[in-house]
Amino acid sequence: MIKRENIRIRDPFIYTDKENGCYYMYGTTDIVPGSIAARKSFSVYKSLDLENFEEPKLLFSPEGTDFWADRDFWAAEMHKYNGKYYLFGSCKAEGKCRGTHIFVSDAPDGDFTPVSPLPATPLDWECLDGTFFVENGTPYIIFCHEWLQVHDGEIWAMPLTEDLSAPAGEPVKLFSASESPYTSPIGSPNGEYDPNSNNYVTDGPFFYREDGKLKMIWSSFSYGRYLVLSAESDSLLGKWTHGESLFDFDGGHAMVFYTLEGERMISLHAPNTRDSGLERPRFYKF
After folding, report:
1. H-helix or E-strand spanning residue 149
2. For the chain, give me the number of helices (H) and strands (E)?
3. How far apart are the C-alpha atoms of 269 and 279, rounded to whole Å?
4. Which of the chain's termini has less CB crowding within 10 Å, N or C?
5. 271 prior amide bond cis, ω within 30
6. Count: domains in the chain
7. The domain spanning residue 154 has which CATH number?
C-alpha cells in the first residue's frame, strides 16, 4: 500500500464507488520527475479510506495502437453515465494541438478504449482539462481554450452525442479568465505575476449544484499563487458571476465528491510546485 502523502499526483479526481465501498483516484499520474510534463498513460489508485492506496493500475496507454497522442497525458477524470464509465483526459503530440479525449470502459478501473479516433475538443484549438456535465438531459464537455493560444484563457461548453463520441453542436464560450476580478496576468507557464502581460489562465473547471444554483470551481493564478476560484450561474450557458478564492494557499485544480459516509469534500493538489515534485492529493471538508 502507498500512503497518500507519498503519492505525487496533479489534478486528483475522486470517484466514490458506493456499491463496492471504495474510492478511485484519477489525475495526472505519469509525471516526468523534475517537471510537470507527463508521459503517455493514464492510471488509477484505489483506496478504502483515502489515506492508503493500492499500487496504480494502468487504464490506457497508446503503446501498440494508432492513437493520435504520445505525450502529456494530463488531468484524467472519470464519470459514470448511462451505465458506462467515461474517462476524460488531455494529451498532445508533435504538430497537433493539445486536446481532451474521451475513453470508455465497463468498470471504473477497467481497460479504457477511445470512443472515437479524434479528441472531443476542436482540432485547431489548444485545449485541456475537459470535464463532463449533464443539463436538461444533454451531455456536455466543458473545457479550457488555453491561454498559450488565446492569451486570455477561456472556458467553453459543447454538447455531445448520447454515446459521447462526437460533438452534437457548436461550442459556447462561458467566460474568459480576466472576467474574474481575482485573477492576475502571468509572465510564463510558471505563473509569476507580470502586470505588463495579457496572459490569464483557465484550468480545471468542475460543476455541482447547490441552493438552486449551478456552481463551478476552476483554477487560475493570482499574484503568483495558484488557487481555486468559484463562479455560479442559473444554467450552464447562462451568465456566470465570479467569487473569490476558496483557499489561502498555493494549490488547485479541484473537484467535489462525497465520501462513503455522505460527507461533501473537495480534492485538489498542493503545493503547485513545478520543479520539485512536492504535489500531493489534499482532501478537505467543503
Report:
1. helix 147-150
2. 1, 21
3. 6
4. N
5. yes
6. 1
7. 2.115.10.20
